[in-house]
Structure formats: structure tokens, C-alpha cells
Amino acid sequence: MKKVYPDATAALAGAIKDGMTLMAGGFGLCGIPETLILAVRESGAKNLTFVSNNAGVDGKALGLLLETRQIKKMISSYVGENKIFAQQFLAGELELEFTPQGTLSERIRAGGAGIPAFYTKTGVGTLIAEGKEHKDFDGETYLMERGIVADISLVHAWKGDTEGNLVYRKTARNFNPMMATAARLTIAEVENLVEPGEIDPDHIMTPGVFVQRIIHVPDSIKYIEQRTTRPRPVAAE
Length: 237
Hints:
single chain, 6 helices, about 25% strand
């Protein structure tokens, strides 16, 4: 099966529909599938639920889909950098399922591993616990959390081969590997696309069996969410 598509629009063609649940890898603006997110915007699909660590920022990442009001619901752990998100949420125009970051990560991993639910102490006694099943183990109270399986996962990899084996680089590894396993269709945008056999098997982080579609994005933009600088030291004379 040929997995490489000419561009993001072609990779999404025939796959994305209104009302779907999608996952988007990345942490802040690091390791985000920006090209695929732009293609989702161009597809015009609406009433989407997105599972993501965050909702991007204004004008970038998932913030682009909030601008076009294509997102109906976010399942996230952090949304504090996006003014449009705050405006839509406070106006009752956007649903939010707030999930502690570790719990979100485990819900995605569980979905990819075929685990429908698990118990965690995180969130007990808080708003997160409302409406969820509680159970005691060894004298401690735990919450039941459901695993998540999306219709489509959008991930970004530093290197990949044409069979879909992926390697992520440093911090950009974040949520991408687990999301790649937790969807019925995984689409990867890859910075460096190589032939099978060119990646050391010990370096592969996502086996190709989890990836159905690939696009080559050699010139991906690396955004910096919060740029912090300091004056250069003056060289001694």
C-alpha cells in the first residue's frame, strides 16, 4: 500500500468529515502538525472535537481552526495562551473537557493500547471528578478515566521512511508517539523522508504499522511560543 501523498490536502481527502474527533500532536507550538492543521482548515470540516495538549495560540496551530469556528469541543490540559479560545468558551460557543496533563497522556496511550478505561488518583475531590465513577483500592479513592481513540491523528515527525516508521526529535517527541497509535487513521507530516532501511531500527519510535498516510514537509516552520532573550555579554578587551 502506497502511504506517501503529494500534499496535506490529498492526505486528508476522503477521510475528514464533519463531527469527527481528531488528535493533534505537539506541546505548545513545538512538534505540531502545522501543515496538516492548515489542510483541515481548508477542508471546511466543522463541529470537530480536537484532542490536544493545548489549543495553539492566536493565528497559529489549532488557533487557526478556532478562528474559522471549525472546532466544537476541545479535550485539553492547557489552553491559557489563546484569547480566541477564552472568548468562545466564556460565550458558551466552545465545549471544553479539561483533563490533567498526565491523565490526558495516559488516556491517549490507553486508547492506543486497547485499554477502554483505567483508574487514577489525579483529580479526586476536584471539579475533574464530577460525574465520574469512584472506586477504592487499598484504602485510597480513585477516578475512572476513559481511554481515547480518535477518528484521525495528525502527527509531526523529524524523520520517517515511506513505510511510515517515524523518529521524533527531542522535545517535539511530546504527545506525537502516543497519538500515532490511538486513531483509526494516522497521518504523519515528516521533515526528512527516506527509503525503508535508512533508519536504524533501534531509533524508530513509531512503527509504520500505526501510520497509514505520510506527507513530506521539508521546510516546516519552527515557531517559538514565548521568546526570551538576554543581552549578549560584552567581550573583554
